[in-house]
Amino acid sequence: MNHDDEFDPVDRLRAADPAGDVEPRPDFADEIIARVTAPEAERPAGSRPVADIAAARSHRRRWQSIAAVAASVLIIGAAGYALGATSGAANLAGAASPPISLQTGASPENMVEGGREPGVGAGTADQKVSDSIYPSGFGRNFFTASGLGSAGAAAQAYAFDPNAAPIPDRVAPLAAALGIVSPAELGDGGWTAGPPDGSAPSVTVSLDGMLSFYYQNPQTNPWLCADGAEACQPTGQAPSEDAAIGALRSILVAAGRDPGMYEFTSHVWEGSPTRTAEARPVVDGQRLDQAWSVEVAEAGVFSANGAVADVIKLGEYPVVSEQEAFERLSDPRFGGAMTILPMNSRESADAPDEWVPPTEPPATPRAGASLSWPVNEVQIVSARLGLASQWQPDGSVLVLPAYEFTDANGGVWSVVAVDDSMLDFSSD
């Protein structure tokens, strides 16, 4: 990701390398290539180069033809960074603030996002919340707050730039890093290298505002049945955290990205033969809500996705105060969205009470009976100014200032922070 036109991403990676001034010994590159292509039994104890992650053991000969590509990724920076060496060194961007999302209508499942721990801001068990209102972030909510700032300001805005370089030039190194040698062809709204029918490894870069790409490899997918059966039991052991993050870092470098500008996380579901790794770009100490990700099986990477477009500066935008942004939570024009559920609501959404079939109808309403109109009171206790992506009608993607509010129960709400003067309210 380019934040400064004066520096190339790889040059910045090398400049940040504590071993950048160390000259490699003459046989260093040859040794790395030999380790990548050597049979497993001949490797030094504890050695597990990145190429092992991307190579299926049953297809070793096919992958040896691209071993030099994997090795070149390993030795960027000469004797310096070995990409994917340890998870402790993976988060080179440091501890960044969580991403902010302006997406509305989020489900309880995707409200827990951005690498946050599920227990953040958990409420007590006796706090009652209307399930029909609170989990969705919509409905009849009454917001209260005190002590919020009243001064407006200005903040830097960004955008994804899909036109900085010819698309084929973007696809070629990405495809090569994923072991695809066929040239990319334009069709169906994107550039695709490899067969588009999914019969072999392929990568597609879509012509959207972020140049979103998607890679799949049916030859390393543990859930695809080799005999054509509709269902089969996946086999194999999920790779390590270092292996998954190392594979993702290698893809980032091949795409011209600086891994030092990303924060990495990895997780594996219990009993799963695969592991997922994510890399979220960091801008001004803020993780963005658009991530690169890979899913890795024992045989190698079988799916990956991300945004190939660079992020560029758009200049400063006027930003409303915390108090004005808080008032937007109740303004239908802004539709304040809940993006993180408090723990007590999360538990009720994940484990609903067992339905008991009725044995008789409800009571007949009486004349003058009150109308049930539940209103959930939401007490805002803190505000944070950050960044959130916003898709435009033409498909372009902005990364704009946004406020994130946390309520007393740990729920998180977000609204755009840009002043009304910079918002186009027309519906045409």
Give a quick summary of the entry.
The chain is 19% helix and 25% strand. It contains 10 helices and 16 strands. The longest helix is centred in the middle third of the chain and has 14 residues, at 241-254.
Key phrases:
428 residues; alpha+beta; nine-stranded antiparallel sheet; seven-stranded mixed sheet
Biggest sheet, open or closed, and with what strands and sense? 9 strands, antiparallel
Mean pLDDT: 74
- Taken from the alpha-carbon principal axes, the silhouette is globular
Helix-strand category: alpha+beta
Order of helices and strands: HHHHHHEEHEEEEHEEEEEEHEHEEE
SS field, number of helical segments: 10
Distance between the amino and carboxyl termini: 33 Å
Q: Beta-sheet strand percentage?
A: 25-35%
Helix content: 10-25%
Radius of gyration: 25 Å
> How many individual β-strands?
16
Low-confidence stretches: 1-90, 104-138
Describe the overall structure.
The chain has ten helices and 16 strands. The chain is of the alpha+beta class. The radius of gyration is 25 Å and the shape is globular. Helix 2 (28-37) packs across helix 5 and helix 7 runs antiparallel to helix 8. The two termini are 33 Å apart. Strands 3, 4, 5, 6, 7, 8, 9, 10 and 11 form a nine-stranded antiparallel sheet that branches.
